[in-house]
Amino acid sequence: MAVKNIRIQNSLPEMPAAIIGNSKMLACHRENGEIYRLFWPHIEYGQHLGHFWPGIRVAYPEWQGFTKWFHLNIWKNSQRYIENTNILETSLDSLTNRLRVIQSDFVLPDSDILARHYELINGSEKNEKITFFVYCAFNIEESAVQDGAYIDFSNNSLVFFRRNIYLALAGSGYPLAGYQCGRHGTASDPYQDASKGYLQGTRDNILQSAGSLAWDLGELKPGEHKTFSLYLAAGDKEEQVRTLLAQACSKEGTLWLEKTKQFWLGWLEPGRRLAGEQAHKAYNRSLLTMKLLTSKETGASIAAPEFDPYYTACGGYGYCWPRDSVFITAALDEAGYHDLASQFYGFTASIQQRDGSWHQRYYTDGSPAPFWGKQIDQAGSVLWGYWHHYSLTGDGRFIEKIWPSLEAGANYLSISIQENGLPAASFDPWEDSYGQGTYSAAAVCAGLRASSDIARARGEKEKSRYWLDSSEKVKESILNHQWSDQRDSFIRGVNHKVYKDHYDHALHTGEKAFITEDPTGLYVTHWAGEDRRIDAALLGLVFPFAVLEPADKKIIATVRAIEDSLWNHNAGGIHRYEGDGYRGGNPWLITTLWLALYHCTAGNRPRAEELYQWSLAQANVHLLLPEQADKHHGGPAWVMPLNWSHAMFVLTHLALNGRLSLPSKS
To answer: What is the DSSP letter of 2?
Structure first.
């Protein structure tokens, strides 16, 4: 089997079946147990795979002496997370004899070491001689140039490096039986030699490096079990990865497995305890997933493990959006993880712009990520989040810490209010419509009200009154300008500029529009008045921003319009808005759970439960939640796991069990 060009292979979007990590290292798995993406030292960059293929060679005629790589379809596999942990177990049963391999993948909680622990079981009636092989072709920081690989004989490890990134691989407990370094895709590539069971002993390579190691596991008797562990250490210096490998190899793999299991059980306990006996397995999986997608160092959360780094089908998801992360942080806060919430809000304060605003998105180290415009709702959301965390913890030290950020943000929002009483135009939360959006106005209204309450708690009466007056002005303008008698609903917004593919819909629904030339080529339609489309984000008026009460007649009418206009009658679920064409126009879990949260607050538990169960049914076998469900037959359609989907699931679960503090007016 030829090894394909790694860069081209990994450029195609692919959602993982499962993920593991320690909030600094993050690995993505396929259903067959193959790790195909590895992020370190941040959970969103750099990405270093490439190939990481283990397998075994059995000295038995039926196997013809060839290495049977675990990622190939010569194994029958099944997969599960060890319950309430981020340890992924893949069981592999040979299709040609009675060998079974159980692969347990995990990352050590306190060390940047990825462990692959193997249990080999001989179910036949004869002895089998086993040699364990691993082939690696790392693509450090998604680059195949300026890299090198070599064998470090001080610990019998295979080391890949590029500048200050070192990845070192070693096995534990058995003697090294062979090694080879080479250049992938060439005659020196170790893959073919490893597949034949013979490694040439080449000690190093430069450029597009690949390498293979082999260990002699000896004979496996009938009914016998043997264990073997691989450890991959990541560091910024050669000596660092040597030290990490020494640490890993100092204990048996079963001990590291148990230690990691106990870590995750302990970490999950506060969330499980708060949720009570009714905690669903998907609730626990959501908390565990959110933890993996939250940076250990800064508390910043990414939207999803990056799967489209070359922007072939979207603008990428491996970034921290302040708005999305406020929902994620609110869910963690409500679930009892106040330390993670406080850390994230410290991060937002540290990355704020001088004018009090925030960029659209960031890397988890705080540097700005590629963006395409301001989104004013993000500022409102962060300020609301400051208040939400304070309302749960009463932590006065937290308020003093974030006060300069809150003051700058509240002043920014106040200054942004236009003559019509609404915030200045910006991109909406879906990032495909530019104008004075209703959801954005709700976020600004809540952010200013939250700032007023925190100012009052600090004795800043004048600022409190000013920000409250600004908030009330926005609320009044929402009622005056963003309600449509014609649609008997709040609408998406006013003074909008939209993508050209929405022009026909605009004419169909009667909005007054005209065509202009746009130098960017992105837009041809400008709204002179209202964008009357129904948008699920209108639910933000109630949850979480509490601009209006759930029983308000206009809210009830808006929710009715959302259910009537946006419900998918084939697969179920709520679409984002009328005319949504992103990825073919599927229903989203965020929007469906948002509607469930509204019905919880409105006292309509049966409908909330229906929507909750629908969302749960869209999960994959590991209970990871996607962004979208297929519009024809349901099931994951795009982006998985999506952090925001898991956050909304946690919030809904808590609400259904009477354990959610939101929504409430501050």
So the answer is: P
Taking Cα atoms as reference points, which of 531, 581, 539, 473 lies closest to residue 327?
Answer: 539
| 59 backbone dihedrals φ, ψ, rounded to 5° | -80, 80
State the pairing for strand pair 523-527/530-531. Answer: unpaired
3-state secondary structure of 157: strand
Q: DSSP labels for 200-257?
A: ----EEESSEEEEEEEEEEEE-TT-EEEEEEEEEEESSHHHHHHHHHHHHTS-HHHHH
* Cis omega (within 30 of 0) for bond into 606: no
Helix or strand holding residue 535 (H, E)? none
| Distance from the Cα of residue 318 to its chain's centroid | 7
Outline where 458-521 has alpha helix (H).
Answer: 461-481, 503-509
* pLDDT tens readout for residues 333-367: 999 999 999 999 999 999 999 999 999 999 999 99
Q: Is it the case that residue 10 has pLDDT exceeding 80?
A: no
Q: Which residue(s) pair with 135 in the sheet?
A: 53, 212
Judged by phi (left if over 0) then psi (alpha if -120 to 50, else beta), residue 156 lies in: left
For residues 210 and 181, the answer to whether their CB atoms sit within 8 Å is yes
CB 116 within 8 A of CB 178: no
Q: What is the pLDDT of residues 309-332, one digit of tens each?
A: 889 999 999 999 999 999 999 999
* CA–CA distance, 559 with 440 (Å, rounded to integer): 18
Query: Count of CB atoms within 10 A of residue 569's CB?
Result: 6
Token pair belonging to 105: 């993948």
Alpha-carbon distances of 616 from 589, 596, 611, 623, rounded to whole Å: 9, 12, 9, 8
Count Cβ atoms within 10 A of the Cβ of residue 493 and give its class: 0-12 exposed, 13-18 middle, 19 or more buried.
buried
What is the rounded distance in angstroms from the CA atom of residue 637 to the CA atom of residue 463?
Answer: 47
Q: Which two tokens stand for residue 171?
A: 């096995």
Nearest to 492 by CA among 533, 546, 536, 442: 533
Q: Are 600 and 656 in contact (CB under 8 A)?
A: yes
pTM score of the predicted model: 0.93
CA angle 264, 297, 451 (to 5 degrees): 105
pLDDT in tens, 179-229: 999 999 999 999 999 999 999 999 999 999 999 999 999 999 999 999 999
Token pair, residue 593, equals 């759970």
If phi > 0 it is left, if psi is from -120 to 50 it is alpha, else beta; for residue 585 that is left
Asked if 653 contacts 597 with a C-beta cutoff of 8 angstroms, the reply is no
Contacts of 342 by beta carbon, 8 Å cutoff, 6+ apart: 299, 389, 393, 395, 398
Assign 374 to helix, strand or coil: coil
Q: How many helices and strands (H and E) does the chain possess?
A: 16, 27
Cα 382 to Cα 118, 135, 329, 388, 389, distances in angstroms: 45, 46, 10, 10, 11
Asked if 293 and 359 count as a contact pair (C-beta separation under 8 A), the reply is: no
Measured over the CA atoms of residue 377, residue 378, residue 379 and residue 382, the dihedral's sign is positive
Closest by alpha carbon to 69, among 87, 88, 42, 51? 51
Tell me how many degrees the CA angle 51-52-55 measures, rounded to the nearest 5.
120
**Axis crossing angle, helix 376-393 with helix 338-351, rounded to the nearest 10:** 140
